[in-house]
Design a protein that fits this description.
This protein is an all-alpha fold. The protein has one domain. It has 8 helices and no strands. Helix 2 packs antiparallel against helix 5, helix 2 crosses helix 7 and helix 5 packs across helix 6.
């Protein structure tokens, strides 16, 4: 006979696995979406899509005018400036920020959006452009979303959204009668 043992990690894992916590994750997703949307829209309004809004900033990083915490990152910035990638990044970064905001808001593709968001934040911190105080907290929130990937998109349009199961149970879709 198998005896039930107490699982001390069960209480810690509950917020990351229970659909009952999905309203908390929805609030976090909406907050992160608003932050990323503000970043992306500000860059689009600032002309990043029409011009090269990143070249001067990358040159400042390459010349060591920013407080980059690691010296190797100035070499990365030099490489990006020399290869002309600053123009391509001027287009990609605002569009990626708006796409991340849209994914967080809708609950679709949360994991790839959170990974991309973390990578963008880390690059900004490594370049010495961003503050560890603000961006570190944003990274921590995005890591929490990654850990809660099972239920973070439950209140949204994602694959595991609540309305899909309801629709298929009540309209006779492919999941009708499935438990």
């Amino acid at each position: 006979m198998r005896t039930r043992t107490s699982r001390p990690l069960g209480l810690i894992a509950w917020p990351f696995r229970s659909p009952l916590t999905s309203p908390v994750w929805l609030v976090l997703r909406i907050y992160l979406a608003s932050v990323w949307m503000q970043f992306g829209v500000a860059k689009i309004r600032g002309g990043w899509l029409r011009g090269d809004g990143l070249s001067a900033l990358m040159e400042a990083v390459a010349q060591g005018h920013t407080p980059a915490p690691f010296p190797f990152y100035t070499g990365v910035a030099e490489l990006l400036v020399e290869t002309g990638m600053a123009g391509a990044l001027s287009l990609l970064i605002p569009l990626a920020e708006v796409a991340i905001a849209t994914a967080f808001l809708s609950g679709v593709l949360l994991v790839p959006a959170a990974v991309c968001a973390i990578l963008i934040n880390l690059n900004l911190i490594l370049a010495g452009i961003a503050s560890i105080n603000f961006d570190g907290r944003i990274i921590a929130m995005q890591v929490l979303l990654l850990v809660a990937w099972r239920v973070a998109g439950y209140l949204g349009l994602g694959k595991r959204a609540w309305w899909r199961g309801w629709y298929h149970r009540h309209r006779g879709g492919p999941l009708a009668g499935a438990t």
